[in-house]
Amino acid sequence: HVQLVESGGGSVQAGGSLTLSCVASGSLRNTYCMGWFRQTPGKEREGIAGIDVDGTTTFADSVKGRFTISKDDVKYSLYLQMDNLKPEDTAMYSCAAVRLTRWAGPPSLRPYEYNYWGQGTQVTVSL
Asked: Angle CA(33)–CA(36)–CA(39) in degrees, nearest 5?
């Protein structure tokens, strides 16, 4: 069983930066693909960044060039570096994992393809 705990959310002004962390406990090791998702009230969960076991990454167009996903396998941790934040980035951010070493194509950003989820951390970006 895998447990995921996010941290690093907060309030920031537009143009600022935040780094989110997700620590995994349980039998994660190097057999899980992971991703970051976000959701605002009344909207569907949006996949924004994914990473394979071998480090292959993918990003949603809405964050490409501004966000970076990375991981530390020794620390069982996943990170999301968010730069040049915009008010539309305001959301609850969650990390997710699925037991899979590699996707057939780019890492998936489809929420239904992940089966372990953290509780989320709130990011608020103001003008």
From this structure: 140
